[in-house]
Amino acid sequence: MHAVIGGVILVIIITILIFIVCQRRKKEKYFRDNGGMILKHQRIRIFSETELVKATNNYDNSQFLGEGGFGSVYKGVLADNTLVAVKKAKDVDKARMNQEFQHEIGIVSQVNHKNVVKLLGLCLETKVPLLVYEFVSNGTLHHHIHDKRSQILGSWKNRLRIATETALALDYLHSLADPPIIHGDVKSMNILLDDHYTAKVSDFGASVLISPNQTGIGSKIQGTFGYLDPEYLMTGNLTAKSDVYSFGVVLVELLTGEKPTSSSRDGEKRNIIQYFISSVEDNQIVQVLNFEPADDDEMEEVEAVAGLVKRCLNGSGLKRPTMKVVAEELARLKKLSDNFWAQQGNEETECLLGESSSHTSYEISSINMDQMDTYTVHTTFDIERGSTVSI
Ligand SMILES: *[C@@H]1O[C@H](CO)[C@@H](O)[C@H](O)[C@H]1NC(C)=O
Ligand SMILES: *[C@@H]1O[C@H](CO)[C@@H](O)[C@H](O)[C@H]1NC(C)=O
Ligand SMILES: *[C@@H]1O[C@H](CO)[C@@H](O)[C@H](O)[C@H]1NC(C)=O
Ligand SMILES: *[C@@H]1O[C@H](CO)[C@@H](O)[C@H](O)[C@H]1NC(C)=O
């Protein structure tokens, strides 16, 4: 009798052991398939599956942040209390889990810009790799534009600042690597605001994991209706200028408060984008704005931005300015607009600078210094002094 019980227990123990070994083997296999052997030598942090299950409370519904084009996003808390956003991609092309993918992840992990949501690491032990991003607390630009209760866009200064920060981020992505990192889905939902209302571009880099859908030319197009570059729609060739177009659409949204798919307010069956462009051409920009510029100086800035937006929306990518030109132009306007404040606020700035020594220094070591532009140094510096005033 005792022998029988002993035998049964032995069988149970062996079964459990086999199960554990199989689970581990499976994780190891996924890890290898996902390029873990090479990626573990990159600077990017590798998370274990258990760590992320714990952080997100096993992907509990209460942690669900949203569903993007690339998959679902969950909020999580790591063991060291860091807040993160964990992104589970939907579809991944296994054929791309090769050196190209690893090369791209290598680039993505170098991205370190104040206005880009930082990729903290990856989990490779799952069938589809999970991406772990820093958590950005204050919602999307989309939310702040379309929720009437939000006050943040009440001032032109804030609108101009958010536009400039977004442009700097996109220019940074375009100039970091060759071929450029193309975002591919620039829209107000993908621009997040942190607790200082600093803009942070999100959801780039996830695109490197996405398989091109092979079921037909139309279905290969990725992106969001209303923001899509018409040239990309026709040719299927996604370029850096596609991001310029989408950014132009975001600025129309920011200036008019209208969603890009809505029709114009004048009752004509015209899309808001066309309505915006013809308003610029007729020097009637004031009729499409959803705010009133405070004075003539502000009106001039708004007109300059509107003119720039029109150029971003040119049907031909070649005729659109590069993101660098757009960012420089916006930064110049913002500087003009800030000048008065800068004179007033000198003392306060010095005070903030003084405090920065006690601040943990921002991780600069992982940026390729050759590829960094001077403004990146400036904006990175701003994080240290805890201020949202940049450039
Ligand atoms: C944005 O951040 C500010 C400051 O931290 C906070 O007071 C506010 O409630 C936040 N707004 C939203 C919509 O989360
Ligand atoms: C590919 O496109 C088809 C049709 O649009 C869609 O049903 C399918 O889910 C897509 N597959 C992937 C992997 O995106
Ligand atoms: C796609 O666009 C890029 C940049 O404009 C260009 O160099 C390339 O030749 C284009 N490719 C195709 C297939 O049209
Ligand atoms: C596109 O840009 C070119 C060159 O600046 C200009 O001649 C043309 O009118 C623009 N097209 C549109 C639709 O704005």
From TrEMBL:
Question: What is the scientific name of the source organism?
Answer: Rubroshorea leprosula
Please give the catalytic activity noted in the UniProt record.
L-seryl-[protein] + ATP = O-phospho-L-seryl-[protein] + ADP + H(+); L-threonyl-[protein] + ATP = O-phospho-L-threonyl-[protein] + ADP + H(+)
**The organism's lineage?**
Eukaryota, Viridiplantae, Streptophyta, Embryophyta, Tracheophyta
Q: Where is the Protein kinase domain?
A: 59-333
Q: Where does ATP bind?
A: 88
Positions in coiled-coil regions: none
| Protein family according to the UniProt entry | Belongs to the protein kinase superfamily.
Q: Which named protein is this?
A: Protein kinase domain-containing protein
Q: Which GO terms describe its molecular function?
A: ATP binding; protein serine/threonine kinase activity
Domain of life from the UniProt record? Eukaryota
